[in-house]
């Protein structure tokens, strides 16, 4: 059965390494017959959450920056995929801001149950991504029945596009293709 897959790429660099992982995951998921929607945060005018909690009693967010158009797609996705470069051993600020802005989903009946993290880092040691994993896990923990289904770690990549053809990009493709 085809799944709806929602992918968020948070790199500010076009053709960045984490975006390559996102594209490969998307390609694998499409090859497996799934429906894929991918957004690039760098193309949005994403604003910071202001903590007003308007979203807890209304449909959507009080801020008008394009997020309101995404909530239904995220809510109705079967699988969420977050792709991020790792900066200072944590997820990008862009991804953290995006996750904060998903606060309107908290009181909703969401369909997603699986979350994947695709991360790239200049550091050669995969443990450099543990902070990003922990941050995404913290977001996941706010939603009952949702689990971190997998993490792809592209290590030792600094130059734009360096992840292309890497073992991590192959793993991202295979992970997307293996969705059931």
TrEMBL record:
User: Which terms are listed as keywords in the entry?
Assistant: Flavoprotein, FMN
Q: Which GO terms describe its molecular function?
A: oxidoreductase activity
Keyword Flavoprotein found:
yes
Q: Which SUPFAM superfamilies match?
A: Flavoproteins
Pfam family of the protein (one): FMN_red
Highest taxon of the lineage: Bacteria
Record's InterPro entries? Flavoprotein-like_sf, FMN_Rdtase-like_dom, ISF_SsuE-like
Q: Which residues belong to any copy of the NADPH-dependent FMN reductase-like domain? A: 4-121
Entry protein name: Flavodoxin family protein
